Amino acid sequence: MTQLKSEFLNIMLQRGFYNQCTNLEGFDEYLYNCEKEGKPAVGYLGSDPTGDSLHVGHIVPLMMLRWFQKCGHKPIALVGGATARIGDPSGKDKLRPFLSEETLEHNIKGLQKSFGKFLNFNNSANGAVMVDNWDWFKDINYLAFLRDIGTCYSVNRMLTMDSVRTRLEREQPMSFLEFNYMLLQGYDFCVLYQKYGCRAQIAGSDQWGNITSGTELGRRKYDVELFGYTSPIITDAAGKKMGKSEGNAVWINEDKLSSYDYYQYFRNIGDTEVGKCLRIYTDLPMDEVKRLEALQDKEINEAKKILAFEATKICRGLSEAEAAQDTAAKTFEQGALGDNLPVFETTDGCGILDAFVGIGFCASKGEARRLIKQGGLKLNDKTVIDENYHLSSVDQSDGQIKIALGKKKFGVIKLK
User: Fold this and answer.
1) Which pLDDT does position 1 carry in this prediction?
2) Maximum CA extent, the chain
3) Does 238 map to a domain?
4) Do 155 and 56 sit in the same domain of this protein?
5) Distance of alpha carbon 218 from alpha carbon 212, whole angstroms
6) The last residue of a domain, from among 279, 312, 333
């Protein structure tokens, strides 16, 4: 690969963020000239508000945008209030459910919170800004859009895009609504170029087709080169996408997931993923990353603790990271109950199945029963064998009952 000159792209390559770029040398030159002149480049990351929080799977491009800002450039966080009304067909087998206005408004506030954990929103030259594409789509004239934008697109080309082609190959229906999605995202890119001088879109590799929709529109309509840059999809050793824990998303916002559980997700990363995660999910200097990823055998656990602490510090703040670290140490190393373990308050006589469902360790009583048969649930460090057991004051120690799912998930039951 050609020697790169810009600080941002060198960091991206060193830390494993590179997958594809529409013109790597051209993007590098653009960034280098901005860095040399002390003038921030402008790039954006978009996310449709289909949920009220981002999760760990979204952090990869979000960390890229964080580094973009740390290198002196200006990030734009775009929420797709308009495109969420359609739904991105990328990686989907069917049309997304339509969301109400109230749900969209609620979700946008949640995404604002998620973005704010990783980006610095202020009035400086490279302060992040947040925009909603509903602002420019809500009053758009359909015929004018077809005439001005639709004429720049080839249906033949659109049919080759992965999001369309895979659906057609599987003979799964794709609505005309979804087929239009790439036009809207392409238009977003050009609006941001006109309003903010934005010339770069940063995203995960699954967005490549939508990104090139924008770069091609910029070239045809405005005679400008826009740049698309994607990261790889981060997977574990089994090939599973990062961001899922026992079937549940690892949420960024604390109202969706406790800081302790967020910490524990990274603490329990597989040994072979530690180095990759240190590069992607922390701000640690590369010299320290290389030292930690070289650790072997039992020492790798120290690297996992640092990974969990640093990742939690970025997302939840220093005090929450320290509290999660302290709880984990008390629970796993000292045999005590940490202060930040999940707590479920219930009445004397609560059934053991209800307790595990109530604290969130099991999705249903049926799942709890299966885990009991497998020996996976514990009460006060003893394996639960009776699914009809009811909790009482005799189970308490210092007013608390300790329960566990497997060897890594602990909680506290308090009887009223």
Assistant:
1) 53
2) 76
3) no
4) yes
5) 10
6) 333
